[in-house]
Task: structure prediction
Amino acid sequence: MAKLLEFFRNCAGRPAGKFGLVAAAVLTAALIAAGTYWGGSSKEEQKPGLKVIDDQVDLYIKDVHYTEVGDSGNRLEINADSATFLKKENQARFDRVRMKLILPDGKTYELSADRGLLRTDLKNVEIEGNVVILSNRGDRLTTHRLFYSDGEKKIHTPDAVTLTNPRFDVQGRGMTLLLKSEHVSLSGPVKARVR
Result:
């Protein structure tokens, strides 16, 4: 250390303490400037936008996977980009939702939509926006809004519906699907095409 101080005295021609202090200050300023220049801009780019959540929301989750097994043996799997839970209202709200209903006999129905609402106390579901249902037998149903009643084991909608499968295409307004009997009824003006 003494040799270092002597070197600074010889270089600066003045006491080493002042020169060392000035050198340290210049080096610190250079490091701060370099950190601000190279590190500051990337931090600003990485900051995500602020998402405002309703005050009534008890929990907000991204990339959701939820599984519910009912008393009758039905299994409901829900995947969504995000979910908000409102405990007082017994509600779970989902964005960009994908659902799979598996019945005890092995039949499956896959649903997708822009938004979904699950009543956690009743296990009823409402989905809306680009609703598509696919069955494991090749049936495809499209509509704007769809309701599932767990108590009645029923899927229904008052909106326009298109049902297609390898044998026929059917369009109508309003539909009810009873899951136990697999009975489908369409109301309103109905158009059908058999292949």
In short: The helical segments are 2-12, 16-46. Residues 59-194 form a domain with the lipopolysaccharide transport protein A fold fold (CATH 2.60.450.10). The chain has two helices and ten strands.
